[in-house]
Batch of 4 targets.
Target 1
Amino acid sequence: MIQYDFHLHTHFSDDSEAAPEAQIEEAIRRGATGICFTDHMDYMYPCAERAGMSFVFDAGQYFDTLRDLRERYSDRIDIRFGMEFGLRNEKEIKDSMKELYGGLTEKYPFDFIIGSTHCLENTDPYYEDYWVGRTAGEGMALYFQACLDNVSFYDCFDSAGHYDYAIRYVPASTGWRGTEDYHPGDFDGITDEYLKTLIRKGKALEYNTAGLKYGLGFAHPHDHILKRYLELGGELLTIGSDGHKPEHIFFEFENACEHLKSLGYRYYTVYRERKPEFIVL
């Protein structure tokens, strides 16, 4: 089994109630070598009022907690420090966002940072209003363009999170019957530029098993995109469950190793002090 989960959340993320200790104990129970905490930091989250969540927390308290836990569990598991930054491409805020995230990376001793696109057009595709007045294909293309904009503009991250995240939330009102109508090859023009940008900047692509948890039938991103990344010369691949509960960490990792090898991957990547380390699958 893959021995590191490099995307998981705790109660520092507004959408999780998991205690950090619970995530650690579950990882130890599973025989894991290590984990990296990557709680949500989404400055200026546009849906905070209706969601009842701001996705912003006290970074100092977070790192103090993780330091204590790393010391307490040092003889049982390798604990690394990370965050998941919510990247935004809206022109009126992106410069401020870059400055805010830059301030965090300068101040705190990160091992690893995920850069994810959760929002665009000042909303979240989780909400159906994002999809009103557009087809599913149009909504996905706009989301993919935002992902490309963000990995081009920001340098504060190490791995690009859950590339086709928005596919989880395409409503039936768009006419799609579900993921059977999702053909990632239709977006190769944008996706190839996205992947080439990651490769050029030395950023990793994330393999996120939450897609399987959500019943999509594939992880994020789709196999078509994973294979295209290799074809373009991509080498850095991080693996995470996006687990918000102990029962979700390392989700489907027992099958991920053989699946990734079947696609042509030979190793995956973990990070320490923002530097990649390669582990054979």
Target 2
Amino acid sequence: MRKNIVAGNWKMNKTLQEGVALATELKEILKGQKPNCEVIIGTPFIHLATVAEVIKGSVIKLSAENCADKESGAYTGEVSAAMVKSTGAEYCILGHSERRQYYHETYEILKEKVLLALANGLKPIFCIGELKEEREAGKQNEVVKAQLEGSVFNLSAEDFSKIVLAYEPVWAIGTGLTATSDQAEEIHAYIRSLIAAKYGKEVAENTTILYGGSCKASNAKELFSKPDVDGGLIGGASLKAPDFKGIIDAF
């Protein structure tokens, strides 16, 4: 049975002290509650170990926003999957459109990152999605197919089943634009059909596919009501505990 997940992606926001305050507030708001979804917060690297202590014993799980494509060595400023795992994080966001766009992360680089994350016991939250011009040209299906084939369809069925996918239409990230619930369902169903063709129906049915792209409390319920939308990867709305709680409550 696949999981419903609401995952926050803080991006490059919050000092360590502000991050601790936000995690503490979220923990308090969720105290004694049993959400109908797994709750994950994705924080900057420097927050991970401290926030892991803050959320201990709560329903909240921890994710990094990235990891290196190398195991270890002379890569000044990089953070390896093993280092991420050692902080207490369980998940790692990989392939986010901002990483692809600003840091030129290729299919090959992401393939390495996914393998290293899995080898170190992390669950990748792997992001895919098309640009505005690709959507306007009707190429969204071929774009997400190429992204899956380029970086994760090399995995065994067993390893692939440890991955969470996040479909993020790049044109809807931070723009206030959101795919309609029908647009989201259409492409989520298509992604699931690709997984079924590659790994079989059972793996496809058990794969969690999140929607990302200006998802907030006001539209989450409608998006999450779709059969192939299993939750959200939340950017801006994850930076305020009540806003994030509103999205969790959509389940």
Target 3
Amino acid sequence: MKLLLDRIKLSLLKRTGIAQKKKNYEWWKAKGYDNQPEVTFIFQTHNKSLEVCHVLEKLRRYEGSKEIIVIDDGSSPEHTRRLAKALTGPNDFLLRSNDLFEVVTYDRAVRMANGKYIALMQDDDDFAGTSWVNRAVELFKKYPRMAILGGKQGSDVELRDGALHRVKTEAEGPFSFVCCVCRAPMWINKELFDQYLHHNDFLFAPVQYDDDEICLRSWTLGLQVGRYDARFRSLSAGGMRLWNRTLLSEQTVRNGKRLCELYRDQMTTIQQKVDESNKAL
């Protein structure tokens, strides 16, 4: 019955032409859609719309061209409604999925993004201003072979107990090359991603160590991975540890072994490339 009533309503709208008078090219152009933004910000969120909305206003102050993509991964309706209400700009997008987690959702969003540089973010991230964005753009322009840039502590990896483990590196200066970085923020050079990397490795789905994998893969393809200090702080407890502790523990073991199987024979070469890149700074 509802479908029938809606059909009658739409038929009347078509005959009267009321709906056709509401939209035209000038109306669309006035929105200011930018198909070639410099930066794309991508958020992964689950039931943390308040936190995301808090930082959205800060991101809008970035003076460069930008687009914002928020991945709503299985949030309750109240959070989805709040996000939809906040994302009103011409370059704002809301992607809805059902508990697919980071490997799948980030991959889809990255391939959708039009920004030259993409910042993968999480729903507990916070920051004071937008200088961390300007710095990242500067570094990408300075190092054109850098595919990944992390704003947190960089890490080396070592083989132990049949798995690869992260070993935090001591920061040397405001910028350095490292084996791996983790989210967030985790920046991606979109052109290099499209040309060489293409996708997240779905062997690591639904979550964990996929960020390490894409970093190590970058080095094997002749690309570089860097780290700088974005000076992020946490707004709240991280969602993975808040709602998915058991899954995270299982995936840490499973994907640690997978990472080892894929890269243990290449770690010496990768570390040499990291050292050579740092010597050239």
Target 4
Amino acid sequence: MWISDKWRDFELLDCSRGERLERWGKQILVRPDPQVIWDTPRNNPLWRQPSARYHRSRSGGGAWDKGTLPESWPIRYGELTFRVRPMNFKHTGLFPEQAANWDYIMEKIRSAGRPISVLNLFGYTGAATVAAAKAGASVCHVDAAKGMVQWGKENAEASGVREMPIRWIVDDCAAFVAREQRRGRHYDALIMDPPSYGRGPGGEVWKLEENLWGFVELCSGVLSDDPLFVIINSYTTGLSPSTIGYIAEAVFGRRYGGHCESRELGLPVTESGLPLPCGASCRWER
């Protein structure tokens, strides 16, 4: 497991009975987590007095009880600064377990000894984009949601990389990659965080289990002749790290050789000292 244990502004204080108790800067949030199926004692008094709590609805979805929570606030991770804010469906705009990948991205780019171009697909609010730009790469950030791309620009501004060579693209990722391939454009590194389920602009249905293989094959067509790395993330329950690794090996290893490693991502839980699994990630490198 890759554990993101270098945080100062974020802390997973405890988790029990389907919820997580978290510190985001000075704000204490309680959010649901379906993987937290254990019923351990809730000894931390902050369980009873959080800054905000997300309540699930029996009819689907849910809502925040925000109290005095600010609309948004900054948190730092090393050299990086992000704006977080409560969103629909419990999210804050940042997945703190991905910090282990941000470290990897920055180290690989800085040690490459050459200019690196990165394509970040399903780029969300741009944390990986900001990390790559901070390390000196040129980045193309693609997401179908205009609001997420705007948020990414805010994170770039907060981290001091707004003037770096970042292309911000609002588009369907598969359609964009297909066009880039026709244009003959290539990238030295790929980062992708495809959703478990979604619908395209024409009503097309995306299911990760059915579409990931074809999408990864498509993306292999825009890798340069001297690629640095590929990262594939997944939050789909039941899709193991080994499954993602198999796809990466079959697509990228077959063409370039190299090495592939797949693990769960995790966050340390302060109360128990145990890591909470938070998804799967695969790293292929030349």
